[in-house]
Amino acid sequence: MQTRTVQFLASLLFLTTAISSCDEKEVSPWDRMVGVSNQIIPPVFPDRTFVITDYHDVKDTLYTNAINRAIAICSEQGGGKVLIPDGEFFTAPIRLKSNVNLHLSDSTILKFTADPSLFDTVQTRIEGIDCYNISPLIYAYGETNIAITGNGVMDGQADSSNWFSESRIRGMVQEDGKKINEKTLLYEMKEDSIPFKERVFMRENGMRPQFINLYKCKNILLEGFTINRSPFWLIHPLLSENITVRKVKMQSHGYNNDGCDPESCRDVLIEDCDFDTGDDCIAIKSGRDEDGRYWNIPSENIIVRHCRMKDGHAGVAIGSEVTGGCRNVWVENCTMDSPELDRIIRIKSNAMRGGEVENIFVRNIRVGECKESILGFELKYWHVDDGPYLPYFHNIHLENITSKKSQYVLHLDGFEDKIRARDIFVKDCTFDGVMKPEINKVIGVENIHFENVTVNGQDFKGV
């Protein structure tokens, strides 16, 4: 009897240990991505349609009032679709409301005025700094269940005669002979600790606005349309969650024309989109300096898949305004190819901005060519060599990437006297046409692993 009891207890112990071992088995990061993907659910809308032409006063040369009135009525009545039919329509900024799908028909061209006197002043962030500025071309604050869909074109009409004029880009000459623009004034206000409610830029003194800025919103769908000639960043979700950006064509080559910049956002899916931009195709952010530390909200759970990147400073960037941190980013099944695409994956910050970037997973990327490197780190971004808030980048995985041409595989520019980036894993990759004989340029980064990697037709084992 005692022997049976001992055997039973031993069996129970083995079973308990086995179950515990199964429970503790590490879950693949790509399995975790599937879990995140499943919780990103696009909003749905009631089957009601409000056509903007039904609200248009023929005396108006712009459709601003008609569009905003249709949106307001749609939202007040419980939601539905606000339809912009085929044709060319001119408008000032649009304010999106809860439970509204703003839909552009296939042959719609929606053109936005560049007259800043027609822009309201709203709360936003410009390059990670909180402020009040002239309204983005499409803006929402604190709304739920919102969408912009359809195959039409939205044209910001930005060019050198308006948003990209010499005075706006380079600044106006002051009495002391110094040139300064509005964005530089905002930087100075931040440095002088001016409260953000006093950082106000109105009408002609407004900074170049984002095309789409969705601030503190939930349940967002952006699908199908084309954006071109944006004054500033194209798509800027801010402090928002549950976001789907799908089949959007971002084609804009102006100053600071980032494609899609989720900032301090969570649960974001960017898929089947086309990027051809004047700055980073995608740039994940989380605030800058003291403003970023005040909010201290990371960007997390972000998926980029089945996208196509042409020109840009990076295919997918993180930073440089990443003070709140960034974690859990997956990039897969993308094609990136252009002599004017600087880097494939880029992570950037400095010792004034800080921020921890971790758990970045990249696989199945086809690179035709890029100008500099497959993976780029900049820990001294904008020539800031020292400061009290050291950034930290770690746990970065690259898998099954093929490239036909680049200067380097890795270009990792850290601190010469300290290690603030580590744990880089490169696996099952083929890099051809690497121009620099040293293959990689690495400063201040440790624990870099290569497994089954070929460079210029030769097995590559290390840095």
From TrEMBL:
The keyword Hydrolase applies. InterPro entries: GH28_Enzymes, Glyco_hydro_28, PbH1, Pectin_lyas_fold, Pectin_lyase_fold/virulence. SMART domains: PbH1 (SM00710). It comes from the Bacteria. It comes from Phocaeicola sartorii. Keywords: Glycosidase, Hydrolase. Gene3D superfamilies: Single-stranded right-handed beta-helix, Pectin lyase-like. GO terms for biological process: carbohydrate metabolic process. One of its GO terms (molecular function) is polygalacturonase activity. Transmembrane segments: none annotated. Pfam families: Glyco_hydro_28. SUPFAM superfamilies: Pectin lyase-like. Belongs to the glycosyl hydrolase 28 family. This is Glycoside hydrolase family 28 protein.
